[in-house]
Amino acid sequence: MSTSHPARSSAVLGRIAVFSALIVVLGTVIVPLPGGVPITAQTLGVMLAGLVLGPRVAPLAVLLVLALAAIGLPVLAGGRGGLGVFVGPSAGYLLGWVAGVVVIGLLMRTGRFTWWRAATASLLGGVLVVYAVGIPVQALVTGVPLDLTALSSLAFLPGDLIKVAAATLVVVALKRAYPRAFPAHRTPPEPVAA
């Protein structure tokens, strides 16, 4: 019986734990805003998880953070935790993280690794998908019309664009320094010489 499978499973569990911890630690960097949804660096951790771990493993790291929050641990921005966060104004953004990392991971696995692919994946999955889930839920919870909630969410955009740039820089540097950290990317087959 080969020991590579248990070793691989341990490595995957270790990556899930590391990225969950990273997301939690980045939650300590917060800028409070009116409306109950603070600007945090946690979405930077979510973007990095999607970029590095891929569409199958990254959601597990995010779900671990959400599970810890659900049992009451203060793992979300501002030391929040408990089931109440899943019915508050930020609930949709938290659920959007799960969809967002899947999109980021899928976009990163569709071709060769490039900085622009990392930036595009972070923008589409880490910002647009998270907003697409978060804004409607925030509007529903707060009772503010959807268009006004979307307009107020523009306050988050500059910070999120900075996080996209930071995630891109970090992942490009990591790819150069330690390419084994990334699952194999699908690349177009090389043409066969005649």
TrEMBL record:
It is a multi-pass membrane protein. The chain crosses the membrane at residues 12-31, 60-79, 91-108, 115-134, 154-174. Its main location: membrane. InterPro entries: BioY. Keywords: Cell membrane, Membrane, Transmembrane, Transmembrane helix, Transport. It is found in: Cell membrane. Belongs to the BioY family. This is Biotin transporter. It comes from Microbacterium luteolum (Aureobacterium luteolum).
